[in-house]
């Protein structure tokens, strides 16, 4: 468990109300009414600035907005495909399938991990070098499977929001693809929530600075925690991911609380429309 226990308790109570007295089919139909397309527009705005004040003329503004329409169309297709096909535990094949749909022009149906170094704008840390990506992704996928099995075995369904946030954080930490990592991470987060009867979260474009600040602090906290491990411990999935709030950095805690607060708001919105 990563999220503040009082926030998680509140989320769990609302999830129980949402799931009580409603069939699984009816619940999924209700959740599909959430403004997912509006959320995708905001997700796109994280990658492509939508600040209209920076354009000198209306013509330039309209031209730029037209150029974004194909990207939004790709996101909608990826979301529709993923929400129908998604199953836990997460697999590498599914990641490639979604990335092919988010960036069809880049990958042409053959998504692969990046082959060059990157440094996200404003980030305090550098993602793993290309030679390390496969190993990082293998460990990441191994842990998500382990966490999923643990949650199911112990019936700790309240941990699924934490699993969703963990996937979100570490996809962006590893930055496995040449482009589309942020859109992929936010989409996967919502696939996991939706699969387990939670509404999708929405991080609005206007929160971009705050969101990136929380994300950067979390990645930095993780890397500092990792640097204190002995060399022989750095391949330990258990020590790297630590499904325990007391064992992670403050930056990681703040990120988990931040995205969980978005889920809390989403639950309020769905319950408000239901009642």
Notable traits:
single chain; Fic-like fold; 67% helix; globular; mainly alpha; 275 residues; 12 helices
The percent range for strand residues is under 5%
Mean pLDDT: 89
CATH class: Mainly Alpha
Helix % is 55-70%
CA-atom Rg in angstroms:
19 Å
Order of helices and strands: HHHHHHHHHHHH
How many strands appear in the DSSP assignment? 0
Q: Ranges with pLDDT <50 over ≥5 residues?
A: none
Q: Name the structural class.
A: mainly alpha
Q: Give the N-terminus to C-terminus distance in angstroms.
A: 30 Å
Compute the number of helices: 12
Number of domains: 1
Please characterize this protein's 3D structure.
The protein is globular and about 55 Å long. The protein has a single domain, classed as Fic-like fold (Orthogonal Bundle), CATH 1.10.3290. The two termini are 30 Å apart. Helix 1 (5-19) runs parallel beside helix 12 (250-274) and helix 10 (208-227) packs across helix 12 (250-274). Helices cover 67% and strands 0% of the residues. It has helices spanning 5-19, 24-31, 36-47, 58-85, 92-102, 104-107, 130-154, 160-174, 181-195, 208-227, 237-241, 250-274. With 275 residues, it is mostly helical.
